[in-house]
Amino acid sequence: MMGNHSPLNHSLTLLDGRYVGKFSAMASPCEILLDHSNLALAHAQVQAAAQEAARIEQKFSRYRTDNIVHALNNAHGHAVRVDEETAHLLNFAATLHALSDGLFDITSGVLRRAWKFDGSDKIPHPADIAKLLPLIGWQHARWENPFLTLLPGMEIDFGGIGKEYAVDRVFLHLAGMDDSALLVNFGGDLRARGPCRNGTAWQVGVEKPHAAGQAIEIISLLTGALATSGDARRFLLKEGVRYSHILNPKTGWPIQDGPRSATILASDCVLAGMLATLTLLAGKDAEKILNEQEDIKAWLVW
Amino acid sequence: MQLKKLSKLSLALAQASGALLSATSGAAHAQTENFGWQIDSAVLYYQEADGRVRAIEPVVSMKKDFGDEKIFNMKLVLDSLTGASPNGAPPANVAQTFTSPSGGASYTTAPGELPLDETFKDTRGAISSSWQQPIAPDLRLNVGGNISAEYDFQSIAANAALAKDTNNKNTTLSAGINLEFDNIMPVGGAPVGLTRTSLKLPTGDEGEGGPSKSKFITDMLFGVTQVLSRQALMQVNYGISLANGYQTDPYKMLAVLNGDTLVPTANYLYEKRPETRTKHSLYSQFKYHFTEDVVDLSYRYTTDDWGISSHTWDTRYRFEISNGLYLEPHARWYTQSEADFYKPYLVQGTDVTAGGVALVGFATADSRMSAFDATTFGAKIGKAFEDESEISLRVEQYKQVSQTKNNLPTGDLAGQKLVPDLSALLIQFGYSFRW
């Protein structure tokens, strides 16, 4: 077993004949599992993975002041020209907005100013929510590739797509460096390619339905991606009513009676993540929506 | 929620996520996308009846889309003209003998024939290119240039245009300007206008005659394109063109009639046109898409301070037959009035003295400055293939009918059609492909 540290603060260990690279990005523990024994390659892969994750975080984080998201959110009603990668993400967000009838909306992040899901009973005042609503709605944004114009005060947030996108990007990058099996896992959103050299699939843990945070179901994943939306631990509880952190951007209030979290197995991580998000946004119809899809496996926590 | 109706939601999403990931894979390193080149090539064959001008014109145009609405265009044209061009004198009942512009050779035109300068032969090469890109939301800039050269003529031009989309992209406003500088170096020097052809002397650049002449043209265009419905589109343009400089055709002359008799050809006069010309044009186009077919109607009106006004009606209908095969009939009607200084011939005593001194300021007998009607009928047939290539064949017949009347009852020109009608055949073979 050996360790390695670099300025990007990643580590590489050899565990049971596989290289395990670890680093931290997007406020998540990130892990890559490489089913080969080539140290130089593993080193290059973990470095590339950490770099790509850091690049995406730097570029799309809403907490920074030196990136395109900050420029867009502080343009005060002016048009901002975006680069090609951002444009593709905006196109994707626009598609999701249309497919979800406006329920998936990258401009809904301003609701965080009113809602703090800390497990307490601090429900925001309806007037505070109403005040924010005029700033929400992708339909108010002017997206004319490559120019995006937001209303003054409007903000976009790629938080709902960013991590899944990073997983896919890192996966595709690493997959192109070598033919062996690999798994990229950013805080539970993951994508894998198999089979491993010993002929087995990857073993991945999924939270069991109706038993949040306790039981784990181990599934075999040969090739595909898994993403979870929702956090069973993030909610507010007041007078017996549970307020989920899944907010309806049209009303500013939580989606009621829906699952607390959804985990979806699909071909890529962005797809899995977005299906998981849309499932939560469907509220009590979540199950029905899922039953209508083909080739999708889902785990819901109600 | 819309989701409920979308049983194929996962498929729609898979398509979107697939597009996102394939579009951006490698984006961290290389930001360019390759859309390839769109190449359009064509060879045009143009033949005027009665052995007049024949032209063969290969054209290649290349277009590359760099994404983000950035588009590069380049076009190469090679014109090869042979045959004979009217020299300005009308057909007569007597033979007319002329000395060619180069001074040496002479040619004789038989009675009843249109005098043609047989030495007409030219090759022209032109290259133009343009670049278009967005510069602000809904605002596109297009800049371009053009160079063209033949043995006695060079032209260089630069242009810029702005297009602004408004009203949810249903309306596009555009404004453009083109500046063109032409240099003319007539064979044997530019003659002094309205002097006898026998007096042609190569002179210096001072005065009217000289080896090299130039003109400068400024064109401005203002347009509105309006989407009327999902099927219909309408466009209206206004253009103004200001030309300043040498606009005379150095190879064209006017016959002189003394009573009803032609004077000796040596006493014919070189033509002369004003140095300035201001032209206005109004163009409107209407396009309608049926389920598959497309109809395209347009009308253009032009008027200038030389006195020429014209009307053009143009109509095309594209029938989509099947499997990419289409047939597009085309009809065009054109009519123009004559220039104020157009004269099929000069009259001695009125327009010119017996000694050869012009009494008019300007005069031309160029049939393009006369009143005429013209029609074009034809069709294009083409086939588009799945690999985005396309072949096409266009065949058109052009017919020009003069409105210049001959009222002379007797003499050398009696009974002659002062401006003979013209017909021409146009055949174009085209091949487009992606590369």
Summed up:
The complex is a heterodimer of chains A (302) and B (435). Chain A is of the alpha+beta class.
Q: Tell me about the largest β-sheet of chain B.
A: 16 strands, antiparallel, barrel
Indicate the overall shape of chain A: globular
Report the structural category of chain B.
mainly beta
Helix content of chain B: under 10%
If you average the pLDDT of chain A, what whole number results?
Answer: 87
**For the terminal residues of chain B, how far apart are their CA atoms?**
45 Å
Order of helices and strands of chain A: EEEHHEHHEEHEEEEEEEEHHE
By DSSP, the count of extended strands of chain A is 15
The computed structural class of chain A is: alpha+beta
Lateral strand order in the biggest sheet of chain B: 1-2-3-8-9-10-11-12-13-18-19-20-21-23-24-25
**Helical content of chain A (DSSP H or I, runs of 4+):** 25-40%
Low-confidence residue ranges of chain B:
1-6, 26-34, 203-207
Largest interface: A-B, 47 and 33 residues
| Oligomeric composition of the shown chains | heterodimer
Question: How many extended strands of chain B?
Answer: 25
CA-atom Rg of chain A in angstroms: 20 Å
